[in-house]
Write a structure and sequence with these properties.
globular; about 240 residues; six-stranded antiparallel beta sheet; alpha+beta
């Protein structure tokens, strides 16, 4: 037994430095693993927090009017293609702006009305977008319905599509500007009515035209020849 302990002490003297080195390496490796694990846990916590925030933002509602369209993400088309905005635009308080571009809910107003005939309201969101230094703007109109407690895009159109429809009825006509302001977009008897300034010149449109649409599945279809009335101008130059 004494010989055994003697041999053990001798081994400790001979290999002590190696044992200490191995122990230090084990401690260093454990510390690195701890740092990696802590980082992963932090990333997991952030991901869970973002998921919770997203779920809260997309919480289920029972009425389309409860959806917060003023703080919402829209999938752009003409504003992305022609203006240079991203495909998805997130508005806050109805607006998105950077140094040169803007994207906002027209007049800050959402229009509600039954477009499908099911007795439930849809939401119509009119967007204007453009360059902050420019004189012209583009327009997009989104129609949302409520499915499983969440807003779902049902149909959309833009100033390019509206002009194409207008030209089918007035071959030489053109749309100067879509007017999605306070009274520019309405829902009446399951019809979507969109007002636009048409013909004449860019500086002085000749008509105020009303384009009449019905919802067919997921498409907005023009139902009649647009009604036109001569544009009247205030002393400020504004069309009424």
């Amino acid at each position: 037994m004494i010989e055994y302990f003697t041999l053990l002490q001798q081994a400790s003297k001979n290999y002590g430095s190696k044992l200490r080195q191995m122990l230090f390496q084990d401690i260093s490796l454990t510390f690195r693993h701890y740092k990696i694990m802590t980082k992963h846990l932090l990333l997991l916590f952030i991901a869970l927090f973002l998921c919770a925030a997203s779920s809260a933002a997309q919480r289920r509602v029972s009425n389309i009017r409860s959806v917060d369209f003023q703080n919402f993400t829209y999938t752009s088309s003409v504003c992305s293609k022609d203006v240079g905005l991203p495909n998805e635009v997130k508005v806050r308080r109805g607006k998105f702006r950077d140094k040169t571009l803007y994207y906002q809910i027209a007049s800050g107003k959402i229009v509600y009305g039954d477009l499908t005939g099911d007795g439930r309201e849809e939401a119509v969101v009119s967007i204007i977008c453009g360059d902050t230094a420019g004189n012209f703007s583009n327009a997009e109109i989104f129609v949302y319905t409520l499915q499983n407690g969440r807003a779902v895009l049902l149909a959309k159109t833009d100033n390019g599509t509206l002009e194409t429809d207008y030209k089918r009825q007035y071959a030489d006509g053109f749309i100067v500007k879509v007017n999605p302001g306070l009274n520019g977009v309405k829902v009446a008897n399951q019809h979507l009515l969109v007002e636009a300034y048409t013909d004449g010149s860019n500086a002085s449109p000749k008509y105020v035209s009303t384009l009449d649409y019905r919802l067919r599945s997921t498409n907005l279809v023009m139902t009649a020849k647009p009604k036109r009335r001569l544009a009247k101008y205030l002393s400020s130059g504004k069309v009424v």
